[in-house]
Design goal:
The complex is a heterodimer of chains A (117) and B (113).
Chain A: E1 3-5, E2 10-14, E3 19-21, E4 24-26, E5 32-39, E6 46-52, E7 60-61, E8 64-69, E9 74-79, E10 88-96, E11 106-107, E12 111-116
Parallel strand pairs in A: 2-12
Antiparallel strand pairs in A: 1-4, 3-9, 5-6, 5-10, 7-8, 8-9, 10-11, 10-12
Chain B: E1 4-7, E2 10-13, E3 19-25, E4 31-37, E5 43-50, E6 56-57, E7 68-72, E8 75-80, E9 89-95, E10 103-104, E11 108-112
Parallel strand pairs in B: 2-11
Antiparallel strand pairs in B: 1-3, 3-8, 4-5, 4-9, 5-6, 7-8, 9-10, 9-11
The chains are: A mainly beta (117), B mainly beta (113).
Chain lengths: 117, 113
């Protein structure tokens, strides 16, 4: 079974600075998807960024980028120019690419990010 | 993406009663998922609901406790039966429209007294 580990229960960053959230995962599959979701106090789960394992290029979405190291099974999220609105719980998630009933997401325990003004 | 709504957004219930949560999507989707998020915890999948077939439940979740309906491609319900305080959680539905990404509803916050 796949597992996702987020080793940082909490992180803090100064506004306008850069922060990196860590995620590692364990799988025997070669094709899969990785996601970062953000959950603000409203509890809405918001997709931040996604990465396909077969793509070597790291995904980027505006101020958010990932460092995907497939051999190391590492998938960190970098937030540049941090804003107060980035404060939230961040979850790393894994999904197999093999389809069928295995489309479920496996989540890490989350990292609570605080942004200090 | 997909626009997903859930009803109710929150509720306070007495132990021993049941609550049905509705999930509505603005487009037709094959699979819908129901997750539970206990206080301070991550998300755990309860079941996968496909239209026209029985829901597939994850280990630790049973149909008698969490019956699911999926009458069409845009709607599903999850019932939390015979509730106890341990059922106090946020319940979220999600869908995968077509691009392999799951999108989530706003969640239903349930408190059982």
């Amino acid at each position: 079974a796949q597992t996702v580990t987020q080793s940082q229960p909490e992180m803090s960053v100064q506004e306008a600075e850069t922060v990196t959230l860590s995620c590692t995962y364990d799988t025997s599959e070669s094709d899969y998807y990785l996601f970062w979701y953000k959950q603000p106090p409203s509890r809405q789960m918001i997709l931040v960024i996604r990465q396909e394992a077969y793509k070597q290029q790291n995904a980027t979405e505006n101020r958010f980028s990932v460092n995907f190291q497939k051999a190391a099974k590492s998938f960190s999220l970098k937030i540049s120019d941090s804003q107060l609105g980035d404060a939230a719980m961040y979850f790393c998630a894994y999904r197999t690419a093999s389809g069928g009933s295995n489309y479920k997401l496996t989540f890490g325990k989350g990292t609570l990010l605080t942004v200090n003004p | 993406s997909a626009v997903i709504s859930q009803k109710p957004s929150r509720d306070i219930c007495q132990r021993g009663t049941s609550l049905t949560i509705q999930c509505q999507v603005d487009s037709q989707v094959t699979m819908m998922f129901w997750y539970r998020q206990q206080p301070g915890q991550s998300l755990t999948l309860i079941a996968t609901a496909n239209q026209g077939s029985e829901a597939t439940y994850e280990s630790g979740f049973v149909i008698d406790k969490f019956p699911i309906s999926r009458p069409n491609l845009t709607f599903s319900t999850l019932t939390v039966s015979n509730m106890s305080p341990e059922d106090s959680s946020i319940y979220l539905c999600s869908v995968t429209p077509h691009d392999e990404t799951q999108y989530f509803g706003p969640g239903t916050r349930l408190l059982v007294l």
